Predict the structure of Glucose-methanol-choline oxidoreductase N-terminal domain-containing protein.
Amino acid sequence: MGSSQSILADTSAAHSYYDYIIVGAGAAGCVLANRLSEDPAVSVLLVEAGKSHLDELKSKIPMTFPQVFKTPQDWAYETTPQRNILGRRLFWPRGKLLGGSTSINAMIYHHCAPSDFDEWTEDAPGWLLLLLLFVFITRVKQTSAK
């Protein structure tokens, strides 16, 4: 990275002006901050409401991910009443730590349904499913468990 710094609790190195301010240090926020900071002429501030996950053992072991739910590392959201399940609300855990929800999801990875991508093309014609699948395939490397 070009001009990256880590400012966790210490604000003494903070600037009064940034070219980009990214709110949320989840998967997308971290990648975006990394890419933008490759230019040494650009200043980037990445803000996260939660703490670092480095000291949180439960976020490092996939089998323990439910133990992070309803802790300070989880926003612990609840959905609005859901019509198709008799108005019940569902628990909706979201990561409140560096890495965001990717730090509490048991390392699960999935693609959206093709119909989701079809909806994107209505507003953004260049976002074709076949092109996106090519990007996904080139970014993912599956390895054998042997």
